[in-house]
């Protein structure tokens, strides 16, 4: 991959991951509306109680979605930093088992999600050695975060109606 294309990929990934994980830019946005909160900024204003409440019988609560995104982003982070086995033993079911948190556990999960998102954003910003798996995985992470952000926004509407 040429240096110019590698820089373009890195810049595009930084933009999309920053938007979906943290907050959309006020001037230009590609997945969510300009200036809107991304996943982490949306979660910061939720209580542990609300995050642990399922919006419908049999459904997973917001905390499960947040933990699931963190699980996947952590794998991407490890893989981008050279862990050749990061995806080898991934068990996505584990990520969905967290269904209730205390206030301190919720704050810790959000903090870890924000740190991991920033770690991934940092590494994609400087990466000049893209291969198919890292390239596809990083773009998929932005789409994955956007999907769960949309699901969480809908869940919040459902929870507000139920109150």
TrEMBL record:
Protein name: DinB-like domain-containing protein
SUPFAM superfamilies (alphabetical): DinB/YfiT-like putative metalloenzymes
InterPro entries named among the record's database cross-references: DinB/YfiT-like (IPR034660)
Organism: Anatilimnocola aggregata
């Amino acid at each position: 991959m040429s240096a110019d294309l590698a820089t373009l990929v890195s810049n595009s990934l930084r933009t999309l991951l920053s938007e979906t994980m943290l907050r959309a830019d006020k001037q230009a946005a590609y997945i969510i509306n300009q200036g809107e909160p991304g996943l982490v900024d949306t979660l910061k204003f939720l209580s542990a109680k609300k995050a642990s409440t399922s919006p419908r019988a049999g459904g997973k609560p917001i905390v499960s979605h947040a933990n699931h995104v963190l699980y996947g982003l952590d794998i991407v982070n490890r893989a981008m930093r050279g862990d050749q086995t990061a995806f080898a033993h991934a068990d996505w079911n584990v990520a969905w088992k967290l269904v209730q948190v205390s206030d301190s556990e919720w704050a810790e999960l959000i903090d870890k999600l924000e740190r991991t998102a920033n770690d991934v954003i940092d590494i994609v910003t400087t990466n000049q050695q893209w291969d198919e798996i890292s390239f596809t995985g990083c773009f998929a992470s932005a789409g994955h975060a956007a999907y769960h952000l949309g699901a969480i926004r809908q869940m919040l509407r459902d929870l507000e109606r139920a109150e």
